[in-house]
Design goal:
Blueprint lengths: L1 H27 L5 H8 L1 H18 L5 H10 L3 H4 L1 E2 L13 E8 L12 H15 L5 E10 L7 H7 L4 E4 L2 H4 L4 E9 L3 E10 L2 E10 L2 E9 L7 H5 L4 H35 L4 E6 L7 H9 L1 E2 H5 L1 E2 L14 E5 L4 E8 L11 E7 L5
């Protein structure tokens, strides 16, 4: 038994050292290489590992409980990235300033790529379009948006225009979309858009900046869709042999590696856009990364995260395997903008993502 306890203690010390590396990368994010990305991504596994070791030690006395308790306590500094316990309140409202709502939502091409021939499917697609266009948001940032002018079911542009979204900014519309169709990233606004800039990453992935007039003020909305890893987790979970698990696991790891490499480059562009903006900034994005990543850490060093400041619960935004991840975010200039309310609308199941909605107000300038 003594030998077993010694082996357990040795491996736990190695695990504790690895934990410190994970914490250090998450705090300082000094490297943007793919290898560091994999290490940071294991943060939830690290926490669960220490919880297991703590419980095991309490039951078997194999390990002094002080070390796992300390490491778990230190890990609590990352709790805001994981779970938010803030309550929405209106005490910051300045009655002299207009409030405005911003929704970001990956609409998954309104299910255009799935079977939409049945009456039930058509009804759900119409319900989805109606729900978004009547949600009350002043600005809509939609990823994987789709519209076809000659289609009765998919003429999304007409639906949004008829519901007051008279201003629109597209990603690379003239580059690879036909005049009557559009597929990709879009910003719709009920408020005037005075300037637009965009840059293409790959296919439907890219970034748009739109200057939106809010009363006498202007806010710069940046919508971005980072490189899609297109993980095949359904195929991985369906494997019944070690060979199949190895093949699918290796393929998914390659996709994640490629994603980390692309996201780091895309983050450089986002940072430059934020730094040169003459207006307060709100970034809405399908980041395709968890809160334990270089891109998330870099983003929250530049701007405040809306979920962390006003969200509730875990705020998971992905409606599919593995379900328990938050990859959609809004970031904002907390020194120039008040965040009054934020929610993940997880009772809306039209897409493989959940919509997120923030209510903001530009702060009055100090005279």
């Amino acid at each position: 038994m003594k030998r077993i306890n010694g082996i357990f203690l040795f491996f736990y010390k190695c695990f504790a050292l690895y934990t410190l590396v994970v914490y250090a990368l998450l705090i300082w994010f000094p490297f943007k290489d793919w290898f560091s990305g994999f290490i940071m991504m294991t943060f939830p596994v690290v926490i669960l590992g220490h919880l297991f070791c703590l419980i095991s030690s309490l039951l078997t006395n194999r390990l002094n409980i002080v070390l796992p308790l300390v490491l778990l306590a230190v890990g609590c500094i990352f709790l805001p990235r994981t779970y938010s316990i803030h309550f929405n309140k209106d005490d910051e409202i300045d009655n002299r300033k207009k409030t405005f709502k911003v929704m970001s939502y990956n609409v998954h091409v309104f299910r255009h790529n799935s079977d939409n021939s049945s009456d039930e499917a058509k009804t759900e697609i119409r319900d989805m379009q109606k729900w978004i266009s009547t949600s009350g948001a002043d600005v809509l940032c939609m990823f994987e948006y789709f519209s076809r002018r000659k289609s009765l079911l998919f003429n999304s542009n007409k639906i949004f225009e008829n519901n007051g979204y008279k201003h629109v900014a597209y990603l690379n519309k003239s580059g690879w979309n036909r005049p009557e169709d559009y597929w990709g990233l879009v910003i719709y606004s009920k408020l005037p858009i005075t300037a637009v800039q965009d840059t293409l990453f790959m296919a439907q992935n890219g970034m748009i900046s739109a200057d939106v007039k809010v009363g006498k003020d202007t806010v710069r909305i940046i919508a971005l869709h980072l490189f899609s890893m297109t993980l095949k987790l359904d195929a991985l979970s369906s494997q019944r042999t070690l060979k199949g698990l190895w093949k699918e696991g290796k393929d998914n790891a390659k996709r994640i590696k490629t994603g980390f490499i692309n996201h780091a480059d895309e983050m450089d562009i986002l940072e430059s856009w934020i730094n040169v903006s003459p207006h307060p900034v709100i970034v809405c994005g399908d980041f395709n990364e968890t809160p334990y990543s270089y891109v998330y850490g870099k983003s929250r060093s530049l701007l405040a995260n809306s979920f962390e400041d006003r969200g509730k619960g875990f705020g998971f935004t992905f409606n599919g395997l593995p379900y328990f991840i938050r990859i959609d975010n809004q970031f904002y200039n907390s020194d120039k903008i008040n965040l009054l309310n934020f929610k993940t609308i997880n009772n809306v199941h039209y897409s493989d993502h959940y919509p997120i909605l923030g209510t903001y107000q530009i702060k009055s300038k100090v005279e």
